[in-house]
């Protein structure tokens, strides 16, 4: 029933394991089922996107995996506390870009003398060397999300949860950040669970796409994406698979209009 | 992205596109030139003061009764006399030291109280409404009970300041905490800032704008309460502050001195705000990008 942390001596063959997870919320009209019997394994180093239309409970699911909420039924196992990135950058405006990262390091217990150097390294990883002293409002949307990514990476969790992190960015910036995320994922060997409603984005990034149906959120279908990286969002194989997934997604959405 | 040879040349390309985007989207921020600051910020209040003086000078011969409306020159003379006798700074210091010390105590009490009300549901339900109600109670109402409880002394002055300023400071912090975006709290929790760490690293810094607004108002209330206390409870042993100066002027029917005292009370209140609280507020807002130049 509860979120349990894997012990060190257990052999871990997954970065996150969701077993028959259901979640319902109390509403004035009674219990509302948001997630229904979700089972997903994310292998170490795997990149999985969760794809779904509105009302599929994507964000609820990420909250559960992040440990911010508890499932009503089922169990979720992660190794340590996962890092979480939001659609809004959620950087603290009273701190500089670098200090935001250093706060994450501090809360993880990294001793003070090491923090500055580590923060600089992480900024370099997201190609923002020299931005340590910048205020959050001085950065562009894309730069803010990269600082947010660096702050999430500062947690040194081996699972990174991303809740539509690029949805509010313009297309060009989003494209560049896809490249960055792919590069950083390959460099760090992180497992990523990435939530989006953008089919092409899902195919562009993931090794596996999991489609959720809406109200309640159930796993509708899964696709392995065998297109080699680096991919571009306008590549023909990406477009082809996106088309196929979109058709299934539309079918799922259509069912809701036919009550 | 010049090359359409899609899959191969992506990675080196990405970095340079990114650098270009960063450069395009980062504005250059410089300092405002002094001339502009002068025209926008310094000149308008000087003009306003000049207009007030002009209207006053025109009105003086019309009223033609120095015991009701003294001339600007007579008020200036009252300032000069007090300065020459070496008493002017003494009046100011007596009141300012009381006011700031009282405010400091109010800060020490109001801050934890505000945090408690903001974070503990039971405390909020119990004293939250009283605390905001107290803000609308004129602090002069506390002077009679304070005199009866504590007598005519400095502690009575401090008590009145506290009762005036603590609710403002606490309420400012409460509204600051209430306005912390839930996203910051979620982000803080995923980073491991829970419990007291969450309060220290997320809640308090995020609540700073509301807190500083509360401090500003708290100072205004401190100063008002103190003046009320000094006017009502003037007693020779307490030393002459600005409130007593005003009361002494009234009993002496010296209208120029009355004006002098009122102007001093006004200027000191404004000066403390301009020297301490406004810069603090601007610094807090500017560092968060909340002070956008029009």
From TrEMBL, chain A:
<dbReference type="Pfam" id="PF00005">
    <property type="entry name" value="ABC_tran"/>
</dbReference>
<keyword id="KW-0547">Nucleotide-binding</keyword>
<dbReference type="GO" id="GO:0005524">
    <property type="term" value="F:ATP binding"/>
</dbReference>
<protein>
    <submittedName>
        <fullName>Sulfate ABC transporter ATP-binding protein</fullName>
    </submittedName>
</protein>
<keyword id="KW-0067">ATP-binding</keyword>
<dbReference type="InterPro" id="IPR050166">
    <property type="entry name" value="ABC_transporter_ATP-bind"/>
</dbReference>
<dbReference type="InterPro" id="IPR017871">
    <property type="entry name" value="ABC_transporter-like_CS"/>
</dbReference>
<feature type="domain" description="ABC transporter">
    <location>
        <begin position="16"/>
        <end position="241"/>
    </location>
</feature>
<keyword id="KW-0813">Transport</keyword>
<dbReference type="InterPro" id="IPR003439">
    <property type="entry name" value="ABC_transporter-like_ATP-bd"/>
</dbReference>
<dbReference type="InterPro" id="IPR027417">
    <property type="entry name" value="P-loop_NTPase"/>
</dbReference>
<dbReference type="GO" id="GO:0016887">
    <property type="term" value="F:ATP hydrolysis activity"/>
</dbReference>
<dbReference type="InterPro" id="IPR003593">
    <property type="entry name" value="AAA+_ATPase"/>
</dbReference>
TrEMBL record, chain B:
<dbReference type="InterPro" id="IPR000515">
    <property type="entry name" value="MetI-like"/>
</dbReference>
<protein>
    <submittedName>
        <fullName>Sulfate ABC transporter permease</fullName>
    </submittedName>
</protein>
<feature type="transmembrane region" description="Helical">
    <location>
        <begin position="42"/>
        <end position="63"/>
    </location>
</feature>
<feature type="domain" description="ABC transmembrane type-1">
    <location>
        <begin position="92"/>
        <end position="276"/>
    </location>
</feature>
<keyword id="KW-0472">Membrane</keyword>
<dbReference type="GO" id="GO:0055085">
    <property type="term" value="P:transmembrane transport"/>
</dbReference>
<keyword id="KW-0812">Transmembrane</keyword>
<feature type="transmembrane region" description="Helical">
    <location>
        <begin position="99"/>
        <end position="118"/>
    </location>
</feature>
<keyword id="KW-1003">Cell membrane</keyword>
<keyword id="KW-0813">Transport</keyword>
<feature type="transmembrane region" description="Helical">
    <location>
        <begin position="156"/>
        <end position="177"/>
    </location>
</feature>
<dbReference type="Pfam" id="PF00528">
    <property type="entry name" value="BPD_transp_1"/>
</dbReference>
<feature type="transmembrane region" description="Helical">
    <location>
        <begin position="258"/>
        <end position="278"/>
    </location>
</feature>
<dbReference type="InterPro" id="IPR035906">
    <property type="entry name" value="MetI-like_sf"/>
</dbReference>
<keyword id="KW-1133">Transmembrane helix</keyword>
<comment type="similarity">
    <text>Belongs to the binding-protein-dependent transport system permease family.</text>
</comment>
<dbReference type="GO" id="GO:0005886">
    <property type="term" value="C:plasma membrane"/>
</dbReference>
<feature type="transmembrane region" description="Helical">
    <location>
        <begin position="130"/>
        <end position="150"/>
    </location>
</feature>
């Amino acid at each position: 029933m509860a979120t349990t942390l894997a012990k060190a001596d257990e052999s871990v063959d997954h970065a996150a394991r969701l077993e028959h997870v259901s979640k319902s919320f109390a509403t004035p009209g009674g219990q509302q089922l948001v997630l229904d019997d979700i089972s997903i394994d994310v292998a170490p180093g795997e990149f999985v996107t969760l794809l779904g239309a509105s009302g599929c409970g994507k964000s609820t699911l990420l909250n559960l995996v992040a440990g911010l909420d508890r499932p009503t039924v089922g169990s979720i196992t992660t190794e340590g506390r996962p890092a979480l990135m939001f659609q809004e950058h959620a950087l603290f405006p009273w701190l500089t870009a670098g200090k935001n990262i250093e706060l994450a390091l501090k809360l993880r217990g990294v001793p003070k003398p090491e923090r500055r150097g580590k923060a600089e390294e992480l900024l370099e990883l997201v190609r923002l060397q020299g931005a340590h002293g910048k205020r959050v409002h001085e950065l562009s949307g894309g730069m803010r999300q990269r600082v947010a990514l660096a702050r999430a990476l500062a947690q040194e969790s081996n699972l990174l949860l991303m809740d539509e992190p690029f949805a509010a960015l313009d297309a060009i910036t989003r494209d560049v950040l896809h490249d960055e995320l792919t590069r950083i994922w390959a460099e760090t060997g992180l497992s990523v669970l990435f939530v989006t409603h953008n089919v092409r984005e899902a195919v562009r990034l993931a090794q596996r796409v999991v489609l959720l149906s809406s109200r309640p959120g159930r796993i509708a279908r899964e696709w392995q994406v065998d297109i080699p990286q680096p991919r571009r969002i306008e590549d023909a194989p990406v477009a082809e698979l996106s088309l196929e997934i979109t058709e299934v997604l539309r079918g799922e959405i259509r069912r809701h209009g036919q009550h | 992205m010049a090359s359409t040879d899609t899959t191969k040349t992506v990675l080196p390309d990405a970095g340079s596109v990114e650098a270009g985007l960063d450069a395009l989207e980062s504005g250059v921020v410089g300092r405002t030139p002094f001339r502009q600051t002068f025209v926008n910020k310094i000149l308008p209040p000087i003009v306003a003061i000049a207009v007030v003086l002009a209207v006053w000078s025109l009105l003086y011969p019309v009223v033609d009764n120095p015991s009701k409306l003294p001339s600007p020159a007579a008020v200036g003379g009252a300032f000069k006399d007090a300065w020459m006798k070496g008493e002017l700074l003494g009046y100011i210091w007596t009141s300012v030291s009381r006011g700031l010390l009282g405010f400091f105590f109010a800060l020490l009490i109001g801050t934890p109280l505000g945090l408690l009300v903001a974070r503990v549901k039971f405390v909020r339900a119990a004293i939250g409404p009283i605390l905001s109600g107290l803000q609308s109670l004129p602090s002069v109402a506390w002077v009679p009970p304070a005199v009866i409880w504590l007598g005519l002394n400095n502690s009575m002055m401090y008590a009145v300041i506290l009762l005036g300023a603590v609710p403002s400071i606490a309420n400012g912090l409460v509204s600051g905490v209430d306005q912390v975006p839930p996203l910051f709290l979620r982000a803080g929790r995923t980073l491991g800032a829970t419990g007291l760490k969450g309060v220290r690293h997320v809640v308090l810094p995020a609540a700073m704008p509301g807190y500083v607004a509360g401090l500003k108002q708290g100072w205004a209330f401190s100063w008002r309460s103190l003046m009320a206390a000094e006017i009502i409870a003037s007693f020779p042993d307490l030393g002459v502050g600005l409130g007593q100066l005003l009361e002494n002027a009234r009993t002496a029917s010296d209208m120029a001195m009355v004006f002098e005292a009122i102007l001093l009370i006004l200027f000191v209140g404004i000066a403390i705000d301009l020297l301490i609280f406004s810069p603090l507020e601007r610094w807090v807002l500017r560092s968060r990008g909340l002070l956008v130049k029009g």
